[in-house]
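Please, does this match?
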Amino acid sequence: MSIISIALLAGCALPPPDPALVADQCEQRARDAQGPTGEVTVGFNNRSGGFADASVGVTSDFLRGLDPIAVYERCVFQRTGELPIRPPVLRNR
């Protein structure tokens, strides 16, 4: 019975990841490694009056001082086993 189970599992290999999708995901991780991200919302409505909200995000890659390009390349290689198909587009500082 175990030989049949192994044969069935071997036939269920995952398809290779889409290089363009992986590049997009890893590009976002590299952007996040460039520095803290944040958002502030301020508004007013006629029911509750004024309101404000703020959020700040910091990644471990940024805290460790990792190079965003290296973060991108490592991320793509770990997910696909290959080098990136394109360079990342990062935000200007």
